[in-house]
Amino acid sequence: MEVYCTRPRCPRPQNYFADLDDITTLKTTQQKYCTTCGMPLLLDGRYVPVKLLGRGGFGAAFLARDRRIPGMRQCVVKQFQPAGNLSLSQLQQAQLMFEREAEVLSQLGNDHEQIPDLFAFFPVIVNGLQPGQQDQFFYLVQEYIDGQNLEEELVQQGKFSEQQVLEVLQEILKVLKFVHHRGIIHRDIKPSNIMRRRDGRLFLLDFGAVKQVTNVALGSAASSTGIYSMGFAPPEQMAGGQVFPSTDLYALAVTIIILLTNKEAVQLFDAYSNQWKWRMQVTVSPRLADILDKMLLPAANQRFQSAQEVLDALNSQAAQASTQFNSPSVTLPPQPPNPSPVVPRPPTQPAFSTVELLGGAAFSGFEGALIAIALFSLVKSSIVTLSIAFVILGILIFAQTRRWIEKFDLLIIPTISFAIIFFLPFLQGGLGIKAVVFLAVGGSLVAISLTAVFRLIYKLLSLLL
Ligand SMILES: Nc1ncnc2c1ncn2[C@@H]1O[C@H](COP(=O)(O)OP(=O)(O)OP(=O)(O)O)[C@@H](O)[C@H]1O
């Protein structure tokens, strides 16, 4: 039988013991030791690690068998093994988090089917690799969920459909409702922490980052300790402030838009406008999009305040859909009208208002004409003039889209350009200053008209589609 050594830096962790293939020997043998580093392999005399599942922030997870249970039940053994050079207080904090996972699983796991059960939590003291040194490890044994996490599913199957994410949303919201009612905030919801068992059942994993709120009332808060997954944590958690049930709802919504788009969080968040820009990546029903956007609002008090509120909103969406289409294929049961209606669509304003757009066009037309006149005076070739003028104009337009040029720049730059041409008559192409003004204003008006027409067409098309 293969037995995996759990010592963090064991050079050859795979061991093979032919005698353990015999079930009676496996049940009765006292202990086995790693043939390379001497680490005891049968943890707590009972759990036999067989495979490394992965390494996370606080340690490693192993697939193991419980030799004391008939049928050698599979389980997951997590070992506390913080990475990096931590200070004593950081180490104590990390150990506390690990112990907390055990505590929370013992409180929640046995009471909710979709949270793994806790089987054991124990320390092991062993001889260190250096002579005369002792090492202490902590182990947490929990129910093994045989399946795939949603991050793995995403890699394998690509984008989730609206129906698929609705199922994930509903299932995890129900688990979160239970968790929050117990006064616990998960704080690390993400696709890799949601596991789908082979029979389709979804499980919420990894309670290592949880925070217990002292007051069990919903909406009450706990302070954050800075443990979170980048991209999934809302502003209050990133700032190390208080966390709320709506902190988990935010991370769940990030999870859902990642599943819908198969893009990373950083690709969906526009840091410049401080907004999630996911809607243009995928088409879902406007109600679901509105619900997700409300979960994603930066201010915790503007989001849904509980998992139940989101479930109500989703159910009223399903009820609406079923009356609208009278379709038996809608899986969500019809519910009474939503007592807490979804707020109107949160700000999804375009990056530029119409006034800004037309102002930018006026600037580009005016400046473009001045540049063309000045260039033509210098090179006397219309082809070269037009080529260079288009490149410069392109750069100016690009700079506007990035807002490197905006507001007063749109007045200052043409004023300076005009002043240069005014005071250097050889740049007026022999036209005289009046003709220059006429052409520049003309260029400006043409650009405004073209932009207005394109904007109108764009608006009409987006209404029709
Ligand atoms: N109860 C479980 N059943 C099945 N697989 C599990 C279970 N718990 C964890 N795993 C798997 O073990 C691997 C390591 O999990 P672990 O929780 O230690 O770290 P992580 O979730 O990958 O990272 P982090 O803790 O930094 O979020 C992951 O692939 C995870 O899917």
From TrEMBL:
GO terms for molecular function: ATP binding; protein serine/threonine kinase activity. Residues 331-346 have a biased composition (Pro residues). Residues 325-346 are annotated as: Disordered. Keywords: ATP-binding, Kinase, Membrane, Nucleotide-binding, Serine/threonine-protein kinase, Transferase, Transmembrane, Transmembrane helix. The chain crosses the membrane at residues 370-398, 410-427, 433-458. ATP binds at K78. Its EC number is 2.7.11.1. It catalyses: L-threonyl-[protein] + ATP = O-phospho-L-threonyl-[protein] + ADP + H(+); L-seryl-[protein] + ATP = O-phospho-L-seryl-[protein] + ADP + H(+). InterPro entries: Kinase-like_dom_sf (IPR011009), Prot_kinase_dom (IPR000719), Protein_kinase_ATP_BS (IPR017441). NCBIfam families: 4Cys_prefix_kin. This is non-specific serine/threonine protein kinase. It comes from Nostoc commune NIES-4072.
